[in-house]
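Below is how a single chain appears once it has passed through the pipeline. First comes the sequence as given, then the structure the pipeline wrote out for it. We keep one example in the README because the format questions we get most often are answered faster by looking than by reading.
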Amino acid sequence: MSSPHATSPNEPALLAARDLTLAFGPKVIQHDLSFDVRRGSIFAVMGGSGCGKSTVLKSMIGLLPPRTGHVMVDGEDYWAGSEQRRTEIGRRRFGVLFQNSALWSGLTVGMNVALPMQMFTRLDEDSIRRLVMLKLSLVGMEHAVDLLPAELSGGMRKRAGLARALALDPDILFFDEPSAGLDPITSRRLDDLIVNLRDGLGATIVIVSHELPSLFAIADDGVFLDAQTKTAIAHGSPSSLRDTCADPQVQAFMRREQLDANTGGP
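Resulting structure:
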């Protein structure tokens, strides 16, 4: 599913990993990762449980420095910069929807969305209120502006979290297991919303997920991480990996729903 905003393969990547090794103490999670995220793409970080998908995401958004290697943002070495410079890049260019939505429970939906604008801009309150309603309207949540997170369904919390991620007009949106805990219908609606944001706003999307229906529906590129070798063993869109990748681990992952259906598995 290509984007009208996508760059050609010859243009520099908007976001890239170069020889990236990630570790917690002596434990290496992934090593020697290299991949490109093209502007306007929906890029999936794939793999089974425990392979390090969320750890890779943490390094890309500034929560975990790599042991070695580089995260490049529009050609700039993110982790080589000062803490102030990393904050500037993250604030200006990144929007993140965490798996649990990470909304402040004591604030209304509108207050949650307004918070980044209050912290990082000089906008007056009237301008912030107008922008809050705009961001909520993008995700179909303007009716919930005065509700608390506890009053929302799981899908509504995801959309409210997404509105907050959009608050500062980022050009890269990161999603950590966005479909986790959602029923199939709500998950499909969120998938459609992600594609609409990419196509309508020109955002570049990085999604960490193991949910095959979502991956096949929205992702047009990606990398497959292996828990055993602790590195990437395949690159490409989910559908191309399913149809053409010869690696048995990739095939087992990409075709697991078909296998479950044939064997009567869960």
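The mean pLDDT is 90.

See the next section for the split statistics.
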